[in-house]
Amino acid sequence: MIRFESVTKTYPDGTVAVDRLDLVAPSGEITVLVGPSGCGKTTSLRMINRMIEPTSGRILLDDRDTASVPSHELRRGIGYVIQHAGLFPHRTIIDNVATVPLLLGEDKKAARARAYELLERVGLPAHFAKRYPAQLSGGQQQRVGVARALAADPPVMLMDEPFSAVDPVVRDQLQNEFLRLQSELGKTIVFVTHDIDEAIKLGDKVAVLRVGGHLAQLASPAELLSKPADAFVAGFVGRDRGYRALGFAGAGSMPLHSEKTARVGWELGRARDHAEDGWVLVTDDDAQPQGWLRVDGDGDASAEVTPGGLNLGGTLAVESGTLREILDAALSSPSGRGVVVDEDGRLLGTVTASQVLAKIEEQRLAAGPRPDGDALVKDGAQ
Ligand SMILES: Nc1ncnc2c1ncn2[C@@H]1O[C@H](COP(=O)(O)OP(=O)(O)OP(=O)(O)O)[C@@H](O)[C@H]1O
Ligand SMILES: [Mg+2]
Q: In this structure, which ligand is nearest to the CA of 34?
């Protein structure tokens, strides 16, 4: 556990970067520091491993005051990942990853074997090992940065905007892999980002900071979206927070419409007999949805259903998923019927947006009025 106790950092020019920060980052969890540029995130992070010394206050790591631990000893147990991966340009990827274990006196063979294993864990094929950082894409370099920080197997990881220099698709992949890794490793992680969506996706707890290094709110992602502490946090978490909060609500049991389906290779006339409102869902022989087919009455009834004729616009929702996923499936479906599948991707049935909204309303009423007496709750309540 990392505990900030009234920590202040004033730089020599008088800038107060962090102001009396109290914060606990629990062991085995991801605590995200998020806030606008210049609010003191990096300063807070670097005070944990004493790359920056606090002006006043204390930081405790597992109940030891970090000021009393020699900094080299402290850093041995703390991995550090920064925005542009910070790789050594003149060392190969494998040597970059093995650097810290080698410094710690591990023998070369063991360090390399472990480095190969880590590259695989972060999703990089072994043939990258002999390349130099400049021969990798930004996203690949970030993976190497994560592998390198993990190499000494530190119980604590500090990550400063590690995924922000890559495009949104790669960032999404890196985030997913990071969450998967963390579910196996259970490190104590403090993660800095200025992206509220990233904070909400990755954080067990999210600390929102405002400029001047003030903690505005520390809460779980769901709580941050549903109960922002003040106007600053509300503004920062953004406009579509009501919709995003659905990402934390399980869909529970939802009545599903049993959908008649068609197959690729069928004659259009036969597919048309299975259509509702001009749309029929095409699945493979294993009941896995392939796409929607528009059948509007005319056209050659003896023509075949082809994969190229399908509309792939709708997303699929897994039955055990969230209300957000199920609502998205309904809203994105060209037929207006959202497709729900089981864990193996087989069709269970469909659901409309209004059915999902009814479910949202049902859950809201079941939860009762908000403890802070939100006026909006009053009128619909029964
Ligand atoms: N060495 C320094 N000397 C003086 N002021 C500094 C120094 N380092 C940072 N600052 C100031 O401290 C404040 C906090 O900086 P910090 O780097 O912690 O912010 P940040 O939240 O990480 O911002 P960003 O999102 O842009 O990375 C800023 O106003 C910055 O200008
Ligand atoms: Mg920063």
A: 1
Residue ranges of domains in the chain: 2-248, 261-359
Bridge pairing between strands 64-65 and 56-61 = antiparallel
Q: Are 338 and 351 in contact (CB under 8 A)?
A: yes
38 CA to middle of ligand 1, Å?
5
The C-alpha atoms of residue 191 and residue 203 are separated, in whole angstroms, by: 8
pLDDT in tens, 180-234: 878 888 889 999 998 999 999 999 999 999 988 899 999 999 999 989 999 999 9
Q: What is the CATH number of domain 261-359?
A: 3.10.580.10
pLDDT digits (tens, 9 = 90+) for 277-327: 999 999 999 999 999 999 987 778 889 999 998 999 899 999 988 999 999
CB-facing half-sphere around the CA of 112: CA atoms within 13 A:
9
Q: Which option is the CATH number for 2-248: 2.20.25.90, 2.60.120.650, 3.30.390.10, 3.40.50.300?
A: 3.40.50.300
Report whether residue 43 contacts ligand 1, using a CB cutoff of 6 Å: yes
